[in-house]
Amino acid sequence: MEQCYQTSLGKHKERIKPAASRESSTSPLARAMDLKVLCALSVTLLVALSTLAEGIAPPTKCQCKVVPRERTNCGYPGISAAECRKIGCCFNASVPSVPWCYNPKPKKVRKVCPNDPYTRINCGHPGIKPRECTRKGCCFRAHPAGVPWCFYHRVVEEGNVPQEMSPVSL
Ligand SMILES: *[C@@H]1O[C@H](CO)[C@@H](O)[C@H](O)[C@H]1NC(C)=O
Question: List the disulfide bonds (predicted).
Answer without folding.
Answer: 74-89, 84-101, 113-139, 123-138, 133-150
